[in-house]
Amino acid sequence: TLTQLVVQYSVVLFARMNFFLLSLLLLVPLVRGDGYDKLLRFPKTPSLENYVLMRPDFSEARDAISVCTWAKITIDSGLPWFSYATTVSANTLLLKAKAHNILQTTSSSSRFHFDDNVLLKEEWYHLCFTWSPGVMDFYINSILVATSTSASAGQMILGGTLVIGQEQDSQGGAFDINDLFGGDLYQINVFKRKLTGAEVGGMFFNGRCAEVERSLLYEIVLSWDDILESGEQHGEVAVEEAGCNKWGVVEEFSNLVVDYLNRRRS
């Protein structure tokens, strides 16, 4: 009968779908990095002990650099989320969610302000800084909020210390209790060239849980996985779930399958 055929068809379809879902579960960890569903959480209570420290090699990004992240803030501060200091300058590359960004190269120092931009607490924002000799841009949610066509020339200064969550006033320390990051950071990636506005926009419009475009993967000199695996976490900085787990992908697909079967039965 027609009913029996529908039941048999449904059983076969579900068997195939189950196999597909199992394959998907096995495949997701292969295409996602270990840090895909992990974020760094910095406590609301101010403390000079909360930071992540690294000594990255930016030699491949000497002639151009871009640094992007997703950020959710929970405190009022300048919110320094990326502080790269060298013996030449504590502000070799200082990136904040508010106030200003600073770059010191082998040639000169550049700074631009974006004080008029208001970031709401507990909301996710995509932040991206890009530089090549003479040109420096900063984007929030794909919107160009600060730019300079007379930025520093020269090259990036190498051999520095990277601190995430605090601003270095000397290499490796001298933090300020009134100028630190509180909130969540996710998917900080450093690229070895100046990203275009379209590439930055793609990251934002693809969404927080999207992978970095394959064309950009080979441009990364410091990845989110590198930061989670090699960064020295101090104080009460915690690694938490980012809400981008593989089960969400499977659940979304399974819902589509159920909807399809319901339509076939009706």
Question: How would you characterize the largest beta sheet?
Answer: 8 strands, antiparallel
How far the N terminus sits from the C terminus, by CA atoms, comes to 16 Å
Helix content: 25-40%
H/E element order: HEEEEEEEEEEEEHHEHEEH
Total strand segments: 15
- Average pLDDT level: 84
How many alpha or pi helices? 5
List descriptors.
266 residues, alpha+beta, 8-stranded antiparallel β-sheet, 7-stranded antiparallel β-sheet, 15 strands, 27% helix
Describe this structure in words.
The chain is an alpha+beta fold. It has 5 helices and 15 strands. Strands 1, 3, 8, 9, 10, 12, 13 and 15 form an 8-stranded antiparallel beta sheet that branches. A 7-stranded antiparallel beta sheet has the order 7-6-5-4-11-2-14, with no helix packed on it. The radius of gyration is 22 Å and the shape is globular. The two termini are 16 Å apart.
What secondary-structure arrangement, pairings included, does this model have?
Blueprint: H1 2-31, E1 38-42, E2 51-54, E3 65-73, E4 80-85, E5 93-96, E6 100-104, E7 109-113, E8 124-132, E9 135-140, E10 143-148, E11 161-164, E12 183-191, H2 197-206, H3 214-217, E13 220-222, H4 224-230, E14 232-234, E15 238-241, H5 246-265
Antiparallel strand pairs: 1-12, 1-15, 2-11, 2-14, 3-8, 3-12, 4-5, 4-11, 5-6, 6-7, 8-9, 9-10, 12-13
Concise account of the structure shown:
Helices cover 27% and strands 31% of the residues.
